[in-house]
């Protein structure tokens, strides 16, 4: 149950079967101006504004012709690509089901599945000039574990970009507080002309999420063999 307050905010009462955490999340959603704006403008999620803001700052979509969206659900980023770069072919992948988006090929499967790379490449039909990743691992409540799980996805997305991008292409991925791990950051700097971190205004102030933006892909690199180490 919800009710208004004098300040125009919506206050959510704690229901019998709703946890206090769920109540706080619902109240935050109901009072989030980006959530309201997304609904009003027809975006599937408030995350659409993150890509819009990153595009305004880094010019990611102006020359995009082939785009891969990793972690596409619920589809807000793909919507932005279709609107800002209607000439671009777009493919996306996610473990979660995603309602169809006109002009977007969507695969419901694990990006880490060995078959995923070939399916995405075949569906796109050309090397991408932009790889987007808004993926994050499901949290388990242990900060270090959650960070490592998500950074594993970021690393997999980065190597997908390095193995498939056209020269001068770009890679964008969600990371968390502290930015990209140093080893991966070094790989990105070797393979891209510029590597920067940004927190778009649409990211909640209390959120630890940041984005790494790597532009000016230099060309192919060999992925190091698994195993070994010190």
UniProtKB/TrEMBL annotation:
Write out the catalytic residues in the record.
174
List where in the cell it is found. Answer: Cytoplasm
Residue intervals of the Ribosomal RNA methyltransferase FtsJ domain:
43-217
Catalytic activity entry = uridine(2552) in 23S rRNA + S-adenosyl-L-methionine = 2'-O-methyluridine(2552) in 23S rRNA + S-adenosyl-L-homocysteine + H(+)
- Identify the InterPro entries for this entry: RNA_methyltr_RlmE (IPR050082), RNA_MeTrfase_FtsJ_dom (IPR002877), rRNA-MeTfrase_E (IPR015507), SAM-dependent_MTases_sf (IPR029063)
UniProt KW keywords: Cytoplasm, Methyltransferase, rRNA processing, S-adenosyl-L-methionine, Transferase
| Residue numbers binding S-adenosyl-L-methionine | 75, 77, 94, 110, 134
Which residue ranges are recorded for the region named Disordered?
1-23
Q: How is this protein annotated for GO cellular component?
A: cytoplasm
Name the principal localization, coarsely classed.
Answer: cytoplasm
Q: Which Gene3D superfamilies match?
A: Vaccinia Virus protein VP39 (3.40.50.150)
Q: Under which EC number(s) is this enzyme classified?
A: 2.1.1.166
Per its record, what are the GO molecular function terms? Answer: rRNA (uridine-2'-O-)-methyltransferase activity
* Domain of life per record: Bacteria
SUPFAM superfamilies this protein is in? S-adenosyl-L-methionine-dependent methyltransferases
Q: Which PANTHER family match?
A: RIBOSOMAL RNA METHYLTRANSFERASE (PTHR10920), RRNA METHYLTRANSFERASE 2, MITOCHONDRIAL (PTHR10920:SF18)
Q: What function is annotated for this protein?
A: Specifically methylates the uridine in position 2552 of 23S rRNA at the 2'-O position of the ribose in the fully assembled 50S ribosomal subunit.
Q: Which family does it belong to?
A: Belongs to the class I-like SAM-binding methyltransferase superfamily. RNA methyltransferase RlmE family.
Please report the name of this protein according to its UniProt entry.
Answer: Ribosomal RNA large subunit methyltransferase E
Name its species: Sphingobium jiangsuense
Give the gene symbol: rlmE
């Amino acid at each position: 149950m919800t009710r208004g307050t004098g300040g125009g905010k919506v206050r959510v009462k704690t229901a019998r079967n709703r946890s206090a955490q769920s109540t706080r999340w619902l109240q935050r959603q109901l009072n989030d101006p980006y959530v309201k704006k997304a609904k009003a403008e027809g975006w599937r999620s408030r995350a659409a504004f993150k890509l819009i803001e990153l595009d305004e700052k880094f010019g990611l979509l102006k020359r995009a012709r082939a785009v891969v969206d990793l972690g596409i659900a619920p589809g807000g980023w793909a919507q932005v690509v279709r609107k800002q770069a209607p000439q671009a072919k777009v493919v996306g992948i996610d473990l979660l089901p995603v309602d169809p988006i006109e002009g977007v090929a969507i695969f419901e499967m694990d990006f880490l599945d060995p078959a995923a790379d070939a399916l995405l490449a075949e569906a796109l039909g050309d090397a991408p000039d932009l790889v987007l990743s808004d993926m994050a691992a499901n949290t388990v409540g242990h900060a270090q574990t959650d960070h490592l799980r998500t950074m594993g996805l970021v690393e997999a997305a980065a190597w997908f970009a390095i193995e498939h991008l056209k020269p001068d292409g770009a890679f964008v991925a969600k990371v968390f507080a502290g930015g990209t791990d140093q080893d991966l950051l070094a790989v990105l700097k070797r393979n891209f002309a510029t590597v920067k971190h940004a927190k778009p205004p649409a990211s909640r102030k209390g959120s630890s999420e940041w984005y790494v933006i790597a532009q000016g892909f230099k060309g192919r690199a060999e992925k190091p063999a698994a195993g070994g180490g010190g």
